Amino acid sequence: MVNFFEHLRDNLHFNKFLLDDLLCVEYTCPLTETEIGIWAQCDQVIHVLSGKKSWRTLKGTFEVKKGDTVYVKKGAAFIRQFFDDDFCMLAFFITDNLIRDALKNVSVDWTTHEVSTDFHLLYVTDDQLLDSYFQGILHHFQNKSKPLDALLELKFKELIINMMVTNQNPALTRYFLNIAKSSLPPLNYIMEQNFCYNLSLDEFAKLCHRSLSSFKRDFQESYSMTPGKWLIKKRLERAAVLLKKQTLNVSEVAYESGFKDNSHFSRAFKQKFGMTPLDFRKA
């Protein structure tokens, strides 16, 4: 899978403003593949300027089109591309530390935001503030004038606060408040939402904002087993469910369950269930 943040950060083809781990990019997608797997270790705000795409996750499939603004949590997804029109967007990659800093001097009533934050992608309600904000960023790109670093950091914080002050995005506000009171992303939630993607342990550790050794230690404390064994277990359980539905072939089931290749999938499946995936489906 492609690390979307690093791909955009390191690719000279895209217009972008970069400040440490903060990235703002004007992105026109080269439409070469129908579907691709991507992941990022930081959250994203995406404002679509033209075209459409869909994000497919364990939470469902979400189509985004021209004029939409969405908030995407750190994690992985399968992105489906449509070839009717060029897809162009503004993308803002924001860190947890930036969210904490932005909220330091913002007064929010916690009791009014007792809402679920169990989302991977959330449609953001646009208003005049956000529309003006995006137009201002586009103006900087069009004039090839990068704001001063201090101003750029303030612009990122302004984006976060703008999405909160309208009171029209309560789940997002609650999510920001949860980040503000925690020092690390919740390992359990990230693993439960991303186990079915073909990420390495190093990538899972980066996704959880931990070193590899800290990730393994925290994982063992949470699940009482190694991450490798847990991932195989979860992926095989998902594969069994998908095989029973009989809507995907065996290769597609392996792909959707996070296995790197069919032979590894078949061996692991037979070891757990005592039969090949195809025999399991027939049975």
Secondary-structure blueprint:
Layout lengths: L1 E2 H7 L4 E5 L2 E7 L6 E6 L2 E8 L1 E6 L2 E6 L3 E4 L2 E7 L6 E7 L1 H8 L17 E3 L4 H15 L6 H17 L4 H11 L6 H8 L6 H7 L4 H12 L3 H19 L4 H8 L4 H12 L3 H6 L1
Parallel strand pairs: 1-4
Antiparallel strand pairs: 2-3, 3-10, 4-9, 5-8, 5-10, 6-7, 6-9, 8-11
Describe this structure in words.
46% of the residues lie in helices and 22% in strands. It has 283 residues and is α+β, with helices and mostly antiparallel strands. Helix 2 (96-103) packs across helix 4 (149-165), helix 2 (96-103) packs across helix 5 and helix 7 crosses helix 8. The longest helix has 19 residues, at 227-245.
CATH architecture of the largest domain: Sandwich
Strand composition percent: 15-25%
What does the main sheet amount to?
6 strands, antiparallel
Low-confidence stretches: none
Major β-sheet strand ordering? 2-3-10-5-8-11
CATH first level of the largest domain: Mainly Beta
Instruction: Please state the CA-atom Rg, rounded to the nearest Å.
Output: 20 Å
User: How many extended strands?
Assistant: 11
Summarize this structure as a short list of keywords or feature phrases.
single chain, 283 residues, alpha+beta, Jelly Rolls, Arc Repressor Mutant, subunit A, 2 domains, five-stranded mixed sheet, 12 helices, 11 strands, 22% strand, globular
